[in-house]
Structures are given as structure tokens and as C-alpha cells.
Amino acid sequence: MNKYIILLSFFLLFNLQLFPQKNKEKLKKDKQKIESEIAYTNKLLKETKKNTQSSLNQLVLINKQIKQREDLIKNISAEINYINSKIAANNKAVEILKKELAELKAQYAKMIYHAYIHRNTNSKLMFIFASKDFNQAYMRMKYMQQYTQYRKKQAEQIKAKQEELAQKITELENLLSDKKTLLGNQSNEKKKLDNERTEKSKTVSSLQKKEQELARTIKEKEAAAQRLQKAIEAIIAEEIKKATERAKKTNPAATIYTLTPEEMALSKNFAANKQKLPWPLLRGVITSNFGENPHPVIPGIKVNNKGIDIATSSGAKARAVFDGTVVRVFEMQIYRHVVIISHGEYYSVYSKLDAVYVKQGDKVKTKQELGVVHTNDDEAKTELHFEIWKGDIFLDPAQWLAK
Q1: Do the beta carbons of residue 100 and residue 73 sit within 8 Å?
Q2: For residue 278, with 0-12 CB atoms within 10 Å meaning exposed, 13-18 middle and 19 or more buried, which class applies?
């Protein structure tokens, strides 16, 4: 048998089995996650649509859903590409197996023909008795036995190769069926995406008629955001001052912010959990990212966010992202109740709460409920504003929360 074909066959079939199975599982897992996010965003959209007038929150959620739908279509495309590569590999494997099977059958046919020509039992005996000595007779007899065994082994190889070929053909048929299903899913998702883009255009058109009202709302929210930041900075500065005064009691020369050993350990643990912190809500969708965000309706306007905004279901409860101590609970216009928790030199801030379950000085545990997130009845919007600070520097919370 051609050695090149054997080596190529082994290499291909070996790699086919190791062909990124993990990638396939990851694609499926990502797909399920995106589909779950789309379903949840759709649920939030239905809540906002209870208000017959188009709202800014409705547009934000539509934009989010469009992005999720685009991600889903990309995921399906990646899965189709994966299946295409598997189909190509299987086609190659089938081609090689057919060649191997044909060669095995040809060899076996030659052996059968040879056996037929020399089928006379007397001829076999004469072949043995014609030996020069006993050793040669023994060797000839062993050869006859080995030849018979080889024929049997060849027949078994042909059967095994036929079964392997049939298996590969079945796998190929299944892959083609999966591809057909995925192409159908992709087509349906593209239709849904077109409908969502149409809905977005209608909502934008409706909201553009309220541009003056939106511009006034932006100014009000910016002013409220500035007041919130000043309040947080003042509270953190007060905490730093308290820590410095506490340090001076043991070291009169101390002039800088000094953490206790317990606070240092807490800070270290908090930092070690970057990208692992639980979400401040059991379920939610980020509707406004950290930093500058273009306004979804008014061109050229950017809204600066010192944290992230997370849309959630009515009645949802905010929860602590890490162990810590409540350093302040206060109220503020637009942001309503605000809870600030210290995690050593880090702080987490939860605002837009109605009922609050904690008070200043309380020790809280990771995922402990802090209060009920406020629902804006005018827009049918339930949204938590969440921030993370390190000392007096605000950080991007999305970089800290678990994916």
C-alpha cells in the first residue's frame, strides 16, 4: 500500500478527531448565552412598550438588541464555517478511505486468484514434500499457514475499512443536515435584525420630534451626575481623612492615607477578583457604558458616564459585589437612594434605589441584597447606576465584573 496515503490518512483522521472540539462547544455555549441575553432584552423591551409613547430607554434597548442579534448572526456564521471545515475534512477522509479500500480489495483479489490457481491440495503437499530437508519443509508449512492467516487478516481489514467509510459518510450526512439547519436559523435571524432596524428608525424619528425635551433632560442628568460625583468624592475624602487620623494615633508622623491590616487584605482580595466580581444585579443588560457615549438621538452630543447603567426587571434588587462596610447611605435627585460600600481602598457605588436594606456601618457580604432598584413609571424603566472607585479615581466597572 502506498506509504504516503497511509501517513496522510493517519494524520488527517487523527487531526479530524482533535479538530477544535472545544471551539465547537464554545460556539454553542456563546450562542446559548446570546440567545438568553436577547430573550431578556426582549422582555425588558416589552415592559417599556407598556408606555405607548416612544421613550429613550426603548431606543437604548432596541440598540442593545440589534447588537446582540448581530453577535448571534456572527456566532452562527462561525459555526457554519466550522462545519464547512469539518465537511471538507470528512470529504478528504472519505476520498482517502475509498482509495485504501480499493487497494485492499485489489490485493485481496490477487490473493484469491492465486489461491484459485493453486487450489489443488496435492500441489500444496507436493510443495512441502519437495523440500530438500526437514527445516525447509517446516518453513514451507509455516509459510502456508501465515499466508492463510494473512488472507484472513486482509478480509478483516477490508470489513473494518468499509465500516469506517460508512461511519464517515454518515458523519458527513449529519454535518450537511446541521449546516442546512444553521443556514435556516441565520436567515431567520437576519429577518429579525431587519425588523429591529426598522423599529429603531421609527423610534428615532419619533424621538427626534422631542429634541428640545431630550436636550433639557440631558442637561438635568449631567448636573445630577456632577452632584453625585462631588458627593462621592467628598465621602471618599472624608474616609481617607479618618484613616489618616487613625494612623496618626499609632504613628504621629503619618501624613498619608494608611489602611489597617484588615483593609489592606480586603483591598488585595478585591483587586485579585478583577473580572470575577458578581454582577450587582441577578440579571441585567448594560445600557450605557463607562466613559463617553454618543447620544442615540441627538447627533454630536456625547454623554459622559462615570460608571455603567444596567437595565433590569421591575422589582429587581441590587446586591453587593464584594465583602465590605457601608460607609454612607444618602438620597439625591434623579439618583434617589445611593449606597457606598468600602472594600479597603476600593469603593462600590449603587444608586437609583428605592427601599434600602442597609445602613451606615453595616458589614455586608458578597451578593447580599442592598435595596430595590427604582422603576421610572414614565418610561417603564428599571435601571441601576453602578460605579467602582479606587481611592478618588473612578474605574470602568465592566472591567471588574465577571463576563
Answers
A1: no
A2: middle
Structural domains in the chain? 3-208 (no CATH), 219-399 (2.70.70.10)
User: Which residues are bridge partners to 330 per DSSP?
Assistant: 338
Helix (H, G, I), strand (E, B) or coil at 290: coil
- Chain segment 64-89, per-residue pLDDT in tens: 899 999 999 999 998 888 888 888 88
0.70 surpassed by pTM: no
DSSP state of 312: -
pLDDT in tens, 9-25: 444 444 444 445 557 78
- CB-CB neighbours of 170 under 10 Å: 11
126 CB contacts (<8 Å, ≥6 apart)?
Answer: none
Q: Which residues pair with 350 in a beta bridge?
A: 339, 386
Q: Largest Cα–Cα distance of the chain, in whole Å?
A: 116
Q: What is the DSSP secondary structure assignment for residue 34, as one 8-state letter?
A: H
In whole angstroms, what is the distance from residue 261 CA to residue 242 CA? 16
Q: Strand, coil or helix: what is 335? A: coil
Task: For cell 462615570, name the residue.
Answer: 306
280 vs 299: CA distance, rounded Å: 32
